[in-house]
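Figure S4 source data
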Amino acid sequence: MQRRIELEGVTNFRDLGGYTTANGETTKWGTMFRSDTLALLSDQDMETVCALGVNTAVDLRYGHEREDEPSRFLDHDQVTVLALGLNEPPTESVLDSYQFSPDLPRIARERMTENYRNYPFRYAKGYGTLMRRLGAGERVVVHCTAGKDRAGTAAALTLSALGVPRETVFEDYLLTNQYWDRAGRERPGMDAETVASIFSAREEYLHAAFAEIESRCGTVESYLEEVLELDEAAIRALRAACLD
């Protein structure tokens, strides 16, 4: 089976199947997908995605992102779009406040790390809905703009809920660095180190998300129950739907 789905308009659309869990089961192909923005899909891309059986798109972008680049699947016959991102960014992004300084790469890394600490809690509704929809047997693609941060954390937590080892979770997360084409989203004149700090998937960022979960909740399992409000039945349904 193919991990990366070749599309014309987006570059980071991936199948989360084929990962082995700690119990020796395998995540199902053709069930869970992660992607960058679905606003740039071509007509042929939409046919390709529909042929995969996708019927739900969990959109984790901010309100202004959804307005500026509407999903191609809005009002679609097959794919239901769930807008579950925050309406407003909680803080100004480094891109929006960009002004060169020698400290900018450090500032960017600090802001990104802080974002990742907050993602599991700020996006609890979206992450919980994603897992419930999968548990109900839907074929779901979760995405943000790059498919790296908000969606990357969603994928990491879903794979963790399925029992995929942390090492494999990080390997999947880092594949964005191979696949995603940022398509000129950086600001003119932005230095290479700042670009890397903002636009790369970095282990330290995802580590921050898991560390915050463990600091607040003790374990990922407790996080799933206490924050995402997934009980044992919901976890069993998720695993039954997504594992072979």
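Figure S5 source data
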Amino acid sequence: MDCPSEEQMIRMKLDGLEPIKSLDFDIPDRKLTVYHVGNDQEIFQRLDSLKLNTSLIFSGPIDGLEKMDINAGERKTLWIVLIINFSFFLIEMLAGLLSRSMGLVADSLDMLADSIVYGLALMAVGGTMVRKKKVARFAGFFQIILAIFGFLEVIRRFAGFEKMPDFKTMIYVSIAALLANVLCLYLLQQRKSKEAHMQASLIFTSNDIIINSGVIVAGLLVKWLDSSYPDLIIGGIVFIIVARGAYRILQLAK
């Protein structure tokens, strides 16, 4: 096991085995801990069929309640960051429309994309792969459609005359979103999880902090240059990032 894609393969292979209570992936050390009840023979046979050089390191009794508490902690963290991101999706979308800022609108869709990623991660914590794939497929296509419409709107505004966006709203709302993402990053790092779905959540949140900073800079440039172009440029860039993220979500549905 040496990459997140192999984690997905393993999850799919073990999906549906009732004795399994939890899976704990340690990708850097190429280890998988399976918490289960009863015999481990069928579990090992399924893993061995993947031809990943599976070998048994240890098998023995362990306190299952401790692991269930870990899963409960992951779920709680992911629910918190999901609620924060979805709330700021609504806030930034409304603020973007009212302030005529494509940067805020694009950033709001990026927050929505992250909410979807966190939702998928929640399903990965003890969830079934079939359900995860269905949601990933719907979410991916939905995000791509929104990103395309957003990018077309940026092109339309470049070609025509539009009122200047409210740079103050851009800056204040983006600062609030930046602080929210810093909080999300802190909460995710506190879990110290090495599993792929948690690592992916960390990467997306780190990227969000960069995007928030970009919108803040664009707001300052709108004021200093007395031009809407910085807002349109950052909006176009973020829409491309959203589309790329949607493509990665669709990859999970394969």
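The domain at 4-62 is CATH 3.30.70 (Alpha-Beta Plaits). Residues 185 and 205 are 6 Å apart (CA to CA).
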